[in-house]
Protein backbone atom coordinates (compact mmCIF):
# COMPACT_ATOMS: atom_id res chain seq x y z
CA UNK A 1 0.00 0.00 0.00
CA UNK A 2 1.10 3.60 -0.69
CA UNK A 3 -0.12 5.50 2.37
CA UNK A 4 1.72 8.54 3.73
CA UNK A 5 1.93 8.93 7.52
CA UNK A 6 1.57 12.72 7.32
CA UNK A 7 0.77 15.29 4.65
CA UNK A 8 4.35 16.62 4.88
CA UNK A 9 5.59 13.24 3.66
CA UNK A 10 4.08 14.11 0.27
CA UNK A 11 6.42 17.05 -0.34
CA UNK A 12 8.37 16.83 -3.60
CA UNK A 13 8.21 14.68 -6.73
CA UNK A 14 5.93 17.20 -8.41
CA UNK A 15 5.12 16.61 -12.09
CA UNK A 16 6.20 18.46 -15.22
CA UNK A 17 3.58 19.79 -17.64
CA UNK A 18 4.16 21.07 -21.17
CA UNK A 19 3.13 24.68 -21.80
CA UNK A 20 1.35 24.31 -25.12
CA UNK A 21 -0.89 27.39 -25.05
CA UNK A 22 1.75 30.10 -24.52
CA UNK A 23 4.65 28.77 -26.58
CA UNK A 24 4.55 29.58 -30.33
CA UNK A 25 4.29 26.69 -32.76
CA UNK A 26 7.70 25.49 -33.88
CA UNK A 27 9.46 26.88 -30.82
CA UNK A 28 11.37 24.74 -28.36
CA UNK A 29 9.54 22.51 -25.93
CA UNK A 30 8.82 24.32 -22.67
CA UNK A 31 7.67 22.51 -19.54
CA UNK A 32 6.82 23.79 -16.06
CA UNK A 33 7.37 22.04 -12.75
CA UNK A 34 4.03 22.15 -10.93
CA UNK A 35 5.24 23.05 -7.46
CA UNK A 36 1.79 24.15 -6.32
CA UNK A 37 0.98 20.45 -6.03
CA UNK A 38 3.14 20.32 -2.92
CA UNK A 39 0.94 20.10 0.22
CA UNK A 40 1.57 23.76 1.08
CA UNK A 41 1.11 24.78 -2.58
CA UNK A 42 4.68 25.93 -3.31
CA UNK A 43 8.31 24.90 -3.60
CA UNK A 44 8.92 26.41 -0.16
CA UNK A 45 7.64 23.21 1.43
CA UNK A 46 10.95 21.64 0.42
CA UNK A 47 13.12 24.12 2.27
CA UNK A 48 10.82 24.16 5.30
CA UNK A 49 11.35 20.47 6.00
CA UNK A 50 15.09 20.70 5.38
CA UNK A 51 15.59 23.75 7.61
CA UNK A 52 13.55 22.34 10.49
CA UNK A 53 15.27 18.95 10.27
CA UNK A 54 18.67 20.64 10.39
CA UNK A 55 17.67 22.87 13.33
CA UNK A 56 16.36 19.92 15.32
CA UNK A 57 19.54 17.97 14.65
CA UNK A 58 21.76 20.86 15.77
CA UNK A 59 19.67 21.69 18.82
CA UNK A 60 18.86 25.19 17.58
CA UNK A 61 15.15 24.37 17.62
CA UNK A 62 14.01 22.76 20.84
CA UNK A 63 10.73 20.97 21.67
CA UNK A 64 7.88 23.43 22.13
CA UNK A 65 9.88 26.25 20.54
CA UNK A 66 8.63 29.09 18.37
CA UNK A 67 9.58 29.55 14.73
CA UNK A 68 9.95 33.23 13.75
CA UNK A 69 10.49 34.03 10.08
CA UNK A 70 10.12 36.96 7.67
CA UNK A 71 8.12 35.63 4.72
CA UNK A 72 6.00 36.70 1.77
CA UNK A 73 3.70 33.82 2.62
CA UNK A 74 4.87 30.63 0.95
CA UNK A 75 7.76 29.79 3.27
CA UNK A 76 5.48 30.48 6.19
CA UNK A 77 2.92 27.99 4.91
CA UNK A 78 5.62 25.33 4.50
CA UNK A 79 7.03 25.97 7.97
CA UNK A 80 3.57 25.98 9.55
CA UNK A 81 2.72 22.71 7.83
CA UNK A 82 5.70 20.99 9.44
CA UNK A 83 5.48 22.89 12.73
CA UNK A 84 1.88 21.84 13.25
CA UNK A 85 2.91 18.19 13.16
CA UNK A 86 5.93 18.61 15.41
CA UNK A 87 4.45 20.85 18.08
CA UNK A 88 6.05 24.23 17.34
CA UNK A 89 4.42 27.65 17.44
CA UNK A 90 4.94 30.07 14.54
CA UNK A 91 5.21 33.84 14.24
CA UNK A 92 5.53 35.11 10.67
CA UNK A 93 6.46 38.67 9.71
CA UNK A 94 5.10 39.75 6.31
CA UNK A 95 5.41 42.90 4.17
CA UNK A 96 2.08 44.66 3.71
CA UNK A 97 1.94 43.85 -0.02
CA UNK A 98 1.29 40.20 0.86
CA UNK A 99 -2.33 39.46 0.06
CA UNK A 100 -4.85 39.12 2.85
CA UNK A 101 -5.66 35.66 1.52
CA UNK A 102 -2.08 34.51 2.17
CA UNK A 103 -2.10 36.06 5.62
CA UNK A 104 -5.33 34.24 6.42
CA UNK A 105 -3.87 30.92 5.28
CA UNK A 106 -1.00 31.39 7.72
CA UNK A 107 -3.45 32.20 10.51
CA UNK A 108 -5.52 29.14 9.60
CA UNK A 109 -2.45 27.01 10.33
CA UNK A 110 -2.36 28.58 13.78
CA UNK A 111 0.42 31.10 13.13
CA UNK A 112 0.59 34.64 14.43
CA UNK A 113 1.08 37.13 11.56
CA UNK A 114 2.85 40.48 12.01
CA UNK A 115 2.49 42.90 9.08
CA UNK A 116 5.17 45.51 8.29
CA UNK A 117 5.52 48.23 5.63
CA UNK A 118 6.99 47.18 2.28
CA UNK A 119 8.43 50.53 1.17
CA UNK A 120 11.25 50.79 3.72
CA UNK A 121 14.94 49.81 3.44
CA UNK A 122 15.93 46.34 4.74
CA UNK A 123 17.81 47.87 7.69
CA UNK A 124 14.92 50.10 8.75
CA UNK A 125 13.63 49.12 12.23
CA UNK A 126 10.13 48.75 10.73
CA UNK A 127 11.16 46.39 7.91
CA UNK A 128 9.99 42.83 8.13
CA UNK A 129 13.62 41.67 8.34
CA UNK A 130 14.34 43.93 11.32
CA UNK A 131 11.08 43.15 13.10
CA UNK A 132 11.72 39.40 12.82
CA UNK A 133 15.17 39.86 14.38
CA UNK A 134 13.65 41.79 17.27
CA UNK A 135 10.98 39.16 17.88
CA UNK A 136 13.58 36.39 18.03
CA UNK A 137 15.24 38.25 20.89
CA UNK A 138 11.96 38.89 22.69
CA UNK A 139 10.32 35.45 22.43
CA UNK A 140 11.67 32.73 24.71
CA UNK A 141 12.69 29.60 22.82
CA UNK A 142 12.48 31.34 19.45
CA UNK A 143 14.37 30.12 16.40
CA UNK A 144 14.68 31.96 13.10
CA UNK A 145 15.24 29.72 10.05
CA UNK A 146 16.46 32.76 8.07
CA UNK A 147 15.77 31.37 4.62
CA UNK A 148 17.86 34.20 3.17
CA UNK A 149 21.10 32.78 4.55
CA UNK A 150 20.27 29.22 5.61
CA UNK A 151 22.33 26.75 3.51
CA UNK A 152 19.58 24.14 3.95
CA UNK A 153 17.50 26.10 1.43
CA UNK A 154 19.74 25.63 -1.61
CA UNK A 155 20.66 22.15 -0.37
CA UNK A 156 17.02 21.04 -0.45
CA UNK A 157 16.77 21.97 -4.13
CA UNK A 158 20.14 20.42 -4.92
CA UNK A 159 18.99 17.17 -3.34
CA UNK A 160 15.41 17.07 -4.67
CA UNK A 161 14.29 19.61 -7.29
CA UNK A 162 17.34 19.29 -9.52
CA UNK A 163 17.41 15.48 -9.57
CA UNK A 164 13.65 15.36 -10.20
CA UNK A 165 13.93 17.64 -13.23
CA UNK A 166 16.88 15.70 -14.62
CA UNK A 167 15.14 12.35 -14.17
CA UNK A 168 11.75 13.46 -15.51
CA UNK A 169 13.29 14.95 -18.68
CA UNK A 170 15.55 11.91 -19.19
CA UNK A 171 18.48 14.32 -19.00
CA UNK A 172 17.29 16.26 -22.04
CA UNK A 173 16.68 19.57 -20.27
CA UNK A 174 18.71 22.38 -21.88
CA UNK A 175 17.61 25.45 -19.89
CA UNK A 176 16.31 25.97 -16.38
CA UNK A 177 14.41 29.21 -15.71
CA UNK A 178 13.40 30.26 -12.20
CA UNK A 179 12.34 33.34 -10.33
CA UNK A 180 14.83 34.59 -7.74
CA UNK A 181 13.71 35.48 -4.22
CA UNK A 182 16.02 34.15 -1.54
CA UNK A 183 18.04 32.60 -4.36
CA UNK A 184 17.75 29.09 -2.96
CA UNK A 185 15.83 27.51 -5.84
CA UNK A 186 18.01 28.81 -8.64
CA UNK A 187 21.21 28.20 -6.66
CA UNK A 188 20.51 24.63 -5.55
CA UNK A 189 18.66 23.40 -8.63
CA UNK A 190 20.98 25.23 -10.98
CA UNK A 191 24.12 23.88 -9.33
CA UNK A 192 22.85 20.30 -9.60
CA UNK A 193 21.82 20.65 -13.25
CA UNK A 194 25.14 22.26 -14.18
CA UNK A 195 27.08 19.50 -12.45
CA UNK A 196 25.11 16.56 -13.80
CA UNK A 197 25.12 17.97 -17.35
CA UNK A 198 28.78 19.00 -17.18
CA UNK A 199 27.80 22.61 -17.83
CA UNK A 200 25.43 21.97 -20.72
CA UNK A 201 22.27 23.20 -18.98
CA UNK A 202 21.88 26.99 -19.01
CA UNK A 203 20.47 28.61 -15.87
CA UNK A 204 18.32 31.73 -16.32
CA UNK A 205 16.82 33.92 -13.60
CA UNK A 206 13.52 35.77 -14.03
CA UNK A 207 13.43 38.86 -11.85
CA UNK A 208 10.94 41.70 -11.24
CA UNK A 209 11.96 45.10 -12.58
CA UNK A 210 13.30 46.99 -9.58
CA UNK A 211 14.87 43.97 -7.87
CA UNK A 212 18.61 44.01 -7.23
CA UNK A 213 19.26 40.78 -9.17
CA UNK A 214 18.50 42.42 -12.51
CA UNK A 215 20.24 45.68 -11.66
CA UNK A 216 17.46 47.50 -9.82
CA UNK A 217 17.65 49.48 -6.61
CA UNK A 218 15.19 47.33 -4.69
CA UNK A 219 12.40 49.87 -5.28
CA UNK A 220 8.88 48.59 -4.59
CA UNK A 221 7.11 46.46 -7.20
CA UNK A 222 3.78 44.67 -7.04
CA UNK A 223 4.70 41.04 -7.75
CA UNK A 224 4.80 39.03 -4.51
CA UNK A 225 7.31 36.45 -3.37
CA UNK A 226 10.10 37.08 -5.86
CA UNK A 227 12.94 39.58 -6.27
CA UNK A 228 14.80 41.29 -3.43
CA UNK A 229 16.05 44.65 -2.19
CA UNK A 230 19.31 43.16 -0.84
CA UNK A 231 21.70 40.28 -1.67
CA UNK A 232 20.86 37.12 0.33
CA UNK A 233 23.66 34.75 1.31
CA UNK A 234 21.58 31.83 0.01
CA UNK A 235 22.09 33.14 -3.54
CA UNK A 236 25.20 32.13 -5.48
CA UNK A 237 25.67 34.67 -8.31
CA UNK A 238 28.01 32.30 -10.15
CA UNK A 239 25.15 29.90 -10.94
CA UNK A 240 22.87 31.90 -13.32
CA UNK A 241 24.07 32.33 -16.90
CA UNK A 242 21.70 35.25 -17.37
CA UNK A 243 18.97 37.22 -15.64
CA UNK A 244 15.91 38.71 -17.34
CA UNK A 245 13.99 41.62 -15.82
CA UNK A 246 10.20 41.23 -16.04
CA UNK A 247 7.72 44.06 -15.50
CA UNK A 248 4.73 43.82 -13.20
CA UNK A 249 2.48 44.30 -16.23
CA UNK A 250 4.01 41.38 -18.12
CA UNK A 251 3.90 39.17 -15.02
CA UNK A 252 0.23 39.84 -14.38
CA UNK A 253 -0.68 39.54 -18.06
CA UNK A 254 0.93 36.08 -18.26
CA UNK A 255 -1.25 34.78 -15.43
CA UNK A 256 -4.50 35.49 -17.30
UniProtKB/TrEMBL annotation:
Specify one Pfam family: PALP
Which terms are listed as keywords in the entry? Answer: Pyridoxal phosphate
User: Which processes are annotated in GO (biological process)?
Assistant: cysteine metabolic process; serine family amino acid metabolic process; sulfur compound biosynthetic process
Needed cofactors, names only, are: pyridoxal 5'-phosphate
- The lineage's top-level taxon is Bacteria
Supply the source organism for this entry.
Mycolicibacter arupensis
Tell me which InterPro entries the record gives. Cys_Synth/Cystath_Beta-Synth (IPR050214), TrpB-like_PALP (IPR001926), TrpB-like_PALP_sf (IPR036052)
UniProt domain Tryptophan synthase beta chain-like PALP: residue ranges: 7-256
Question: What's the name of the protein?
Answer: Pyridoxal-phosphate dependent enzyme
Q: Does the keyword rRNA-binding apply?
A: no
Matching entries from CDD domains are given as: CBS_like
Entry's SUPFAM superfamilies?
Tryptophan synthase beta subunit-like PLP-dependent enzymes
Q: Which family does it belong to?
A: Belongs to the cysteine synthase/cystathionine beta-synthase family.
